[in-house]
Design a protein that fits this description.
The chain is of the alpha+beta class and 177 residues long. The chain has helices at residues 3-6, 18-29, 71-78, 107-113, 150-163; strands spanning 16-17, 34-38, 47-51, 55-56, 62-67, 81-87, 94-104, 131-146, 170-176. It is elongated, with a radius of gyration of 19 Å. It starts with a helix and ends with a strand. InterPro entries: Split_barrel_FMN-bd, Stress-Dev_Protein, YdaG_split_barrel_FMN-bd. This is General stress protein. It holds the Pfam family Pyrid_ox_like.
Amino acid sequence: MDSINQNQPEDNFENLEGNDAWKKLKEMAEGTSCFFCSNIKTGLPFSTRPMSPQKVDDNGDLWFLSANDSHKNAEIATDPMVQLLFQGSKYSDFLNIYGIAEISEDKEKIKELWEPILKTWFTEGIDDPRISVIKVSPTQGYYWDNKHGNAVAFVKQLVGAAIGKTLDDSIEGKLEV
């Protein structure tokens, strides 16, 4: 534990496993965008691009739609290890997920994940032949969040700064999905 965390008057570290880890992952990843990093084990500089998961399922798997001719798909075919970096707000909801990516062209899964806005990238609609599915199965993760929301965290920071004491509403820990 580092010196800042040691100065906390309340516990701010909690590893989560199983269902609790999955709930935290889903809460933090659903409805937000991430940086999708590939090429992470090749020894080359990793590649990153913004992506949004279409779904986080009950197993904790994250589902994306991607063009089957994209650089990302080619990189996953060479190295399926990926890293997903989420930031929900300027002050909280940080999530780091490592996982194994699989690519498929499962038409039923495409239909399940499809949203009309995706026609921006897949101009032929739901039947666009370029659509592929990427499933990321998490292997490990880490989260940083606030216990009571940004407003409480901000007030604690202000009070802490005024009295010269580390008052922080943060919580962090490993996710074992």
